[in-house]
Design a protein that fits this description.
This protein is of the alpha+beta class and about 160 residues long. It is built from five helices and six strands; from the N terminus they run E-H-H-E-E-H-E-H-E-E-H. The chain has a six-stranded mixed β-sheet. A hairpin with a 4-residue loop joins strand 5 and strand 6. The longest helix has 14 residues. The chain is globular and about 45 Å long.
């Protein structure tokens, strides 16, 4: 039976030491971290979620340094809904970027929410297991985990 990974406590994105430590641990520059944060929070504004009212924004950066954003797009037939992460990945892949360095997700709840199981599988297709997945909550607190840890954790 797989072992579940403990979920870290959220950190404040306003804490320079927390951001610096996270960037060092996950191979990101502080500028990349801030840009991912800004873009995924901003992407929430474009969400189409009339049924759940649950806005999600995602941003990712390719290994080439190109950013892609996405927001969830709901449908009355719930299984047809597309998550923010898959929207961002779809943009990246169709523009020729199939190797992704990092993923960020933002929601309007606290604590931060992790990608769903379907998105975790989708992310795995284009990221290695060491890629960081940074999850931001409504208060701009965040949890950063490697994809391998996210795939072994229970949903946040």
């Amino acid at each position: 039976m797989p072992t579940s990974i403990p979920i870290p406590q959220p950190l404040s994105s306003a804490d320079p030491a927390a951001v610096e430590s996270t960037c060092r641990e996950h191979g990101l520059t502080e500028a990349e971290f801030r840009e991912l944060h800004s873009r995924c929070v901003g992407a929430k504004a474009t969400a189409y979620c009339p049924y759940s009212q649950f806005r999600v924004g995602a941003s990712l950066i390719s290994v080439d340094g190109v950013f892609f954003n996405g927001a969830n797009v709901e449908n009355a037939s719930y299984p047809v809904t597309t998550c923010a992460e898959r929207v961002a990945f779809g943009k990246a892949v169709t523009e020729g970027h199939r190797k992704i360095k990092a993923v960020a997700v933002a929601t309007d709840i606290a604590p931060p929410a992790s990608p769903c199981g379907m998105c975790r599988q989708f992310i795995r297709e284009f990221c290695d297991l060491n890629a960081p997945v940074i999850m931001f909550d409504k208060d701009d607190n965040f949890i950063a985990m490697r994809l391998e840890e996210v795939t072994k954790s229970t949903p946040i």
